[in-house]
Design goal:
alpha/beta; Alpha-D-Glucose-1,6-Bisphosphate, Chain A, domain 3; TATA-Binding Protein; 3 domains; 6-stranded mixed beta sheet; 6-stranded antiparallel beta sheet; globular
């Protein structure tokens, strides 16, 4: 770093314009780099007085959250060096510079750390190996190429998807190919300026704490991007992956369909599918058609494009992201709309009600319908029986609706709650597999679903379904992450089932409300960006642990669970890892939870309208409309009260 820049940064530190952590990270970053683009970008931002931008880029180093590394790959302010030869309205030529950003620097460090961990821990024959995939986001191909080069030059084989593929297919490939680890480059449904780096264990599960900590230790030991490649004869090899892996994955996804005959009878059920410019279009439409559904796509959104040009946000939870598909469904008379996010691990749904109106379902409602149908189908087919149902299990997160708990209890199957993050559901699947005697699970991944199901019923737990409120679902054990491609199949079958009974999915959901009481859930995400925002999020989260509310909207608080500072065990007696989450239960059955996001600059509030303890379903079906309106008003009052309390706490935190 030249002396003029050093003096400028020192002066900014002294004046308070530059955070001490930012100063330290800039000095260390530039001191271990030889790329002139890096210093040119920092120098330009400093010269122009963009201290907020510099703080946002350097106030921290990226660390593993619930989804690995995730950060901006395009800055709020793009420097001339980053812009390069790219036009002003196009993606910059180079990703943004910064220790808190997802760029070549952090991609290289993360890959080096992972590779060194794999080399140290590898005990099998030959070289350790990585499966690598990317979605359609900006810099995905460049990041995948960098990951591949670093891994190969350090003695690790790479199985590389040459074209964009979904996150669940990466998890499946790790298991199918038996690789030592896996990486997918994605920021899920985040804005276009973000990208991410998710790491998977050798069983296709996102890395859990123990392994993540070992990888982080190796990453922290990497001081820069430079390394000495191993000798040519010790380098890894690249194995391209393509359509042959698609076919194997498709064949396993087909097994999620539980009643092919019923689906065939409802073959004129019309689906409009959109991949929202992501990877879902590679698998889901052809899978639906192979299974007998009528499926159209949205031509304008079929194009894989990291700008996601037709939506404000590529998040299928939001009605706006599905609007083009809804308009097409209205024009064509289609029955349902299904959309997936850029890496096809989340699915959103719009269905017609009995009046023919298009209705957006929440993630909790989608998951509840799938859970209900799969328990019902497995039971009616004699797969779940009175003799084995104590080994059948639904796995959900703590912040997912308690309606699924009621559904599981009615079906006499177990329910298990985990922390937020699908890696914890994957961790349960790992546990269930390991409970099978070693000699019987030697070729577990090559066995059919019927064979593995029989083993799990005999020796472990049969996984019926797993999900989280944020539109992530899984219906089988042949991969270990949320899978929108599989969820598309499962929900399409639910829609066909409802239709076979002369109902819509909305009416099927109403039947669950009549049986179990009206459950309404919602979220509020308070976005607080940059270095200042990160500090606000932590102070706000801490306030709920240190000073929880005693009354909300006139209802006394009866229980507060502080998952960061208290010890909890789950329904199977396993300890719950520590997490910054506070769950508050009210006397009248309502509840809310507060949790800082592990992947976005947000603090999330989860809100629950539930029947009062001891109260169950609705006595008479004709009372449903009134019960739903009462529940809606109660939910809105809860939301208003919780957010008012949140704003008061924010003011107190900032004072």
């Amino acid at each position: 770093m030249n002396s003029d820049l050093s003096a400028t940064l020192d002066a900014a530190l002294a004046s308070g314009d530059l955070l001490r952590s930012s100063h330290e990270n800039i000095v260390g970053f530039l001191g271990n780099s030889t790329d002139p683009l890096y210093e040119a970008s920092v120098a330009w931002l400093a010269k122009e007085g963009h201290w907020k931008e510099l703080n946002n880029r350097f106030f921290k180093k990226l660390a593993f959250g619930t989804g690995g590394l995730r950060g901006r790959s395009i800055g709020e302010i793009v420097t001339p060096a980053e812009r390069g030869d790219a036009p002003a309205d196009a993606r910059p030529e180079f990703p943004c510079v910064g220790t808190s950003n997802l760029n070549y620097h952090n991609i290289t460090r993360a890959t080096l750390g992972l590779v060194r961990h794999l080399l140290k821990s590898h005990s099998g024959e030959g070289r350790p190996s990585l499966a690598v995939a990317r979605d359609t986001r900006y810099f995905g191909k460049e990041f995948a190429d960098r990951v591949t080069r670093v891994a190969v030059e350090n003695g690790v084989d790479v199985y590389l998807f040459a074209e964009p593929r979904s996150t669940p297919q990466l998890s499946f490939a790790v298991r199918h190919l038996g690789t030592t680890s896996g990486i997918v480059l994605t920021a899920s449904h985040n804005p276009p300026h973000d990208n991410g780096f998710k790491v998977y264990s050798n069983d296709g599960t996102q890395v859990l704490e123990a392994e993540a900590n070992a990888i982080i230790a190796e990453v922290e030991a990497v001081t820069g991007e430079s390394y000495e490649p191993v000798a040519e004869n010790r380098r890894g090899q690249v194995h391209p992956l393509g359509e042959e892996m698609d076919e194997v994955y498709l064949e396993r996804l087909e097994t999620l369909l539980l009643d092919p005959a019923m689906v065939k009878e409802q073959g004129d059920l019309r689906i409009v599918f959109t991949n929202i410019h992501g990877t879902g279009g590679t698998i889901s439409p052809q899978l639906l058609r192979r299974l007998g559904f009528t499926c159209d796509t949205v031509p304008a959104q079929d194009v894989e494009d990291g700008a996601f040009p037709t939506v404000r946000s590529p998040n299928p939870e939001n009605a706006e992201a599905l609007q083009m598909a809804v308009d097409q469904a209205e024009a064509s008379g289609a029955d349902i709309v299904i959309g997936t996010d850029p890496d096809a691990d989340r699915m959103g749904v719009v269905v017609r009600n009995k009046k023919g109106e298009m209705t957006l379902l929440t993630g909790n409602q989608i998951g509840s319908l799938i859970a209900y149908y799969r328990i019902l189908a497995f039971t009616e087919q004699g797969i779940i029986t009175p003799a084995n149902r104590d080994r059948a299990v639904i796995v959900k997160t703590f912040v997912t609706t308690e309606l699924q708990t009621a559904i599981a209890a009615h079906g006499n199957v177990k329910i298990v709650n985990t922390l937020t993050g699908f890696k914890y559901i994957g961790g349960k699947l790992r546990k269930y597999e390991k409970a099978i005697p070693a000699e019987l699970r030697e070729n577990y991944r090559q066995l059919s679903d019927v064979e593995t199901r029989n083993l799990r019923f005999a020796h472990s737990r049969f996984f019926v379904f797993g999900g989280e409120e944020s539109h992530g679902y899984l219906g089988a054990d042949f991969l270990r992450d949320k899978d929108a491609n599989g969820a598309v199949v499962m929900f399409a079958e639910v829609a066909a089932f409802a239709r076979s009974k002369g109902m819509t999915c909305v009416e099927l959901l109403d039947e669950l409300f009549i049986r179990h009481g009206v459950h309404l859930e919602g979220q509020h995400a308070e976005t607080l960006t940059g270095a200042d925002g990160a500090a606000q999020i932590q102070r706000l989260a801490r306030s709920y642990a240190e000073s929880p509310p005693t009354v909300i909207d006139g209802s006394p608080v009866v229980r507060v669970r502080d998952f960061a500072n208290e010890d909890f065990i789950d329904e199977e007696g396993d300890p719950i890892p520590k997490e910054k989450m506070v769950f508050v239960d009210l006397e009248d059955g309502r509840a809310f939870a507060v949790r800082p996001s592990g992947t976005e600059p947000k603090i999330k509030f989860y809100l629950y309208q539930r029947p009062r303890p001891g109260c169950g379903g609705i006595n008479l079906p004709e009372e449903l409309a009134s019960a739903k309106e009462i529940a809606r008003r109660s939910f809105e009052a809860l939301k208003t009260a919780v957010l008012a309390d949140m704003r008061t706490r924010l003011e107190e935190c900032d004072s």
